[in-house]
Amino acid sequence: MNDLTAPTAQARDDAWIPTSCALCYGSCSILAHRVDGVVVKIEGNPDSVLGKGRQCGKGVSGIMSHYDPNRLKVPLRRTNPKKGIEEDPGWKEISWDEALDEIATVFGRIRAEDPRKLLIQRTTTVTAGRNPLYAFGNAFGTPNYSTAGGGLHCGNGAHLISGIMHASWSVTPDFEYCNYAVYFGASKGHGAGHASTSNMKLAADARARGMKMVVVDPMCNFASAKATEWVPLRVGTDGALALAMCNVLVNEVAIYDAPYLQAKTNAPYLIGPDKRYMRDAATNKPLVWDGAARAARPYSEAKSADMALEGEFEVNGVRCQPAFQKLKEHLKKFTPEWCETITTVPAANVRRIAGEFGREARVGSTIMVDGVNLPYRPVAAVAFRGAQGHMNSLYNFYAIDLLNELVGASDVVGGCLGFNPACHGFPETGRPRYVPKPDADGLMITGMWMGYHYPYPVSEPRMPRNAGLQDLFTLGMTSPFLDSDDREALWTQFELPYRPEAMLNFGANLLMSIANRESVARSLATYKFMVSIDIFETETTRFADIVLPDCGYLQTLDSRSNFPFIFSLPGGMGEWCWPIRQPVLPPEGEQRRFQDVLLELADRIGFRADMNAAYNASLNLAPEHRLQGDRRYTWEEICDAELKTYFGEKHDLAWFKEHGLIKWPKKPEEVYWRPFVDVRVPIYWEFLVPLADKIDAITAPRGHKVPREYYEPMPDHIPCVSHCCTTPGFDLYAFYYRDTLHTNSYTMENPWLDEAARLDPYSYTIAINTETGRKKGLRDGALIWVETETGRKVQGRVKLTQGIHPEGLGIGACAGHWGDGMPVAKGKGVFFNGLLELDAKHASPVNMNLDLCVRVKIVPAEVRS
Amino acid sequence: MGVRWDAVVQDSRFWSEPARTAPMTRPADRSTAVLVEVSLFGSLADAIDERPLALELQSPFAVDDVIAELGRRFGSGFLARVTTSDGERVRHCRVYLDGEEVEDTAAPLRIRNACAQMEMILLTAAEGG
Predict the structure, then answer these.
(1) What's the rounded Cα separation, in Å, for the pair A573 and A571?
(2) Residues A530-584: tens digit of each pLDDT
(3) Which of A312, A353, A451, A548 could form a cystine bridge with B127, CB 3.0-4.6 A?
């Protein structure tokens, strides 16, 4: 019987704890209301810039993920040596000592033999995993990391080009001032993605103020529903539309920002017949044509206003043209009429939208912001996963960003902003301070990056030491070749001197997130030893040898829940904000924080000094706070050292636990840094030409010829594999979209979010255009098979809608769990990735992005009575 | 209307301000021997048997000189991991002298004491998401 007198005899625990959400990588600031040791409510933290007190449906539902009875609570050891999708691991409970002993023994042997045999795999959903796992891997000595589907599907084009052109991880309209935004498959401002809830408010205010929002997307869902105009197009052809719009701007209506192109891009650099820069013999700097001097001069010695953008010149007997002249001529072939045949967008609409974009840019105008006079270009073209998730990922995103570059709407008031590429630092310490800088050619090097593999200057290709081959295909970030069907053939072809043997997996469900599960399962089964740190037994966890139960986001500590600022702090004016994530609740059962586990493993294996050095470097700790020798610091001490490094002695971990976050005002020179920093961005990617030569010099002798059309210095339309399908009956383009109700494959286990998704007509169904469906005799709720040319197929129920392109077939991403470890998620929705091939033929030859659209046919799966 | 971008650039010194006061150092003594204790971490650690490795160098010297000396001792395999084919330090090789990161590895170092501590580690990670 309960003792009803007990609660009144004790002081009640009733506290609102400031911390950070982790239901997606947006990491918004929250307040967790804890009463008598139980979290009863989660709200947004109004003191924070991250959400400003707002939460999305996922955030408020986090409480249900935390208290899910299916959470892992004890370490598990596999007893069945066979690994496969249908294999029962035969779990037995083991102690932490047993688990860590075995892991330390195996990892220790691997580290002694060849540390590269360890692959570190992590989810992108939990941002807290990034730095500790980097530190562990760098200290261990392995170069092999992967961020599974989260990285492979959305990052290789979007982040690469945002980095090269905007010195940031992603781009967003400057909502406070933007008047005309074109979204190409982007999720900025409607409850998903980077700075998700912050951008919701900013975007809503912008629309209320009158910002016109044009959404280019095969499906009219989250972004399009808020749009002024939805532009449906054939799946995977966004780049073709952008190229035609660029052509209209430059060659039809002649709207472009010449002073910007002269001063802030390589548009005036002279290009020779070999597609390379003409260079000064003495300094090796790229030459421009100086109109005042009537001579070619190094770019650094001519006034920008005197640099020719057009014309043809002769330098040392060689005929050459400015890059802009080259681009202008190159764009002529992308007529609106051509575009219509590729995208299905009517030519008249292409001209109208391009014209509106150009006129709204107000080229040449300025505006005062906080007393600082700045260029004003209130238009933005933004893109993300939708446009870049294709074979032609790089050119698609490049072409879209060219729209911004042509009208000078790049990191200026009202334009397309990178997320916080320049920070002058906290006023009391000057940290963190970062700003883009020029390389020897004057082109921009980002001041801050999420990893250590900077987008530019492009690394020199070499024989691969990474199993993902990123050191050969150096514009790639996350690689498909860790799991692809042809990975062994590629490793042999390029003489990889070892093979991955062990995997340390932190939360990634790569069996669901990368491509078809059979390919990934074959890869997973080859690992001799796999450790999964997770909160649920996912489909991927069932391939592990040892499973370690992690703490959830309400139980853990992270001193940088929203840093680097280029990731998810909202762009535009406002405040800098550094929140932490802190424990609100204790671990349950035998759960342990993964950060502590990694430190314990370093101690057991014997590389704590390396771990300390890796944290010193990756957290950029100040000399007075660096971790010393092989001293066994706790995770709290490491977090404390980082916070004091950036914010001074008085702002230690204890201070942050009480206050939750620190913030200070942004300055116009930080937010609109571009006019103040002498860097240029490439409208002509000259560096692709020698890059292809260098890669080819390695690969051609080994039987792999670099397809040069992907390495041309100006963007082009290159069809996806799906666009080339001519097999009769395969008449639809299947694609997935990211349902804002869910985050990757994780939240489908959340009962509240699952209920919302079941109430939503689209989350768990297959969206097909109403007219297309009618012609095929389909009705709402019909059970169908979606089949590819190669015989892959998935099953689901039809939802007919006018809000999808007639050739499109849309499926919510990462649904269709089949494992028993997440019973709420099991059997819900359609497993789109089951349609995806996973091999080099379906990956971009330049940045390794996986092709995410598939040509399909549909077959009824039930006979109507 | 019509304000030039380069005109805006020329008017601002905002980003040329120092981030914070540089620590006090004494100028490099010319022609004096300096003991540098080099610690290699992570994947570089297997290049040597001892940590730290004591090197005696003539001041002034640069990080590039230290890397070159390490290359002489431990071979081209070591250099290939920390330098490009042009001999420049790769970006993901981080070098710290007495706890301060050294970005310009060609610049002569300013040494506080007769013995300096140098740490090197490779930070290699691609990132997505």
Answers:
(1) 7
(2) 999 999 999 999 999 999 999 999 999 999 999 999 999 999 999 999 999 999 9
(3) A451
Query: Does the beta-carbon distance from A616 to B42 stay under 8 Å?
Result: no
Give me the residue from A124, A460, A479 closest to B129, CB to CB.
A124
Residue A791: DSSP 8-state: S
**Distance from the Cα of residue B17 to its chain's centroid:** 22
Residue A423 has phi, psi (to 5 degrees) of -135, 130
Give the Cα separation of A193 and A601 in Å (integer).
Answer: 33
The residue behind tokens 């549909």 is A858
How close does chain B come to A843, measured CA to CA in Å?
A: 16
Do the Cβ atoms of A476 and B6 come within 8 Å? no
Nearest CA in chain A to B7: A675
Residue A290 lies in a domain: yes
Who among A152, A433, A610 is closest to B19 (CB)?
A: A433
Q: What CATH number is given for B27-122 in this structure?
A: 3.10.20.30
Look at residue A388 in the predicted model and tell me its pLDDT: 87
Instruction: Choose the closest CB to B6 out of A304, A609, A624.
Output: A304
Structure tokens at A587: 């671990």
pLDDT: which is higher, A194 or A694: A694
Chain B CB contacts of A366 under 8 Å are 1, 3
Do A162 and A136 fall into the same domain?
no
- Read off the pLDDT of residues A621-656 as tens digits, 9 standing for 90 and up: 999 999 999 999 999 999 999 999 999 999 999 999
Among chain B residues, the shortest Cα distance to A258 is held by: B4
A529 and A621: one domain?
A: yes
Average pLDDT of the residues of chain A: 95
The pLDDT tens digits for A805-841 are: 999 999 999 999 999 999 999 999 999 999 999 999 9
Q: How many angstroms separate the CA of residue B42 from the nearest CA in chain A? A: 4
Range of the domain at A123: 76-144+456-665
Flag if A154 and B129 touch (Cβ within 8 Å).
Answer: yes
Query: B22 to chain A: which residues are within 8 Å by CB?
Result: none
- CA pair distance A562, A663, nearest whole angstrom: 12
Please state whether beta strands A732-737 and A793-801 pair in parallel, antiparallel, or not at all (unpaired).
unpaired
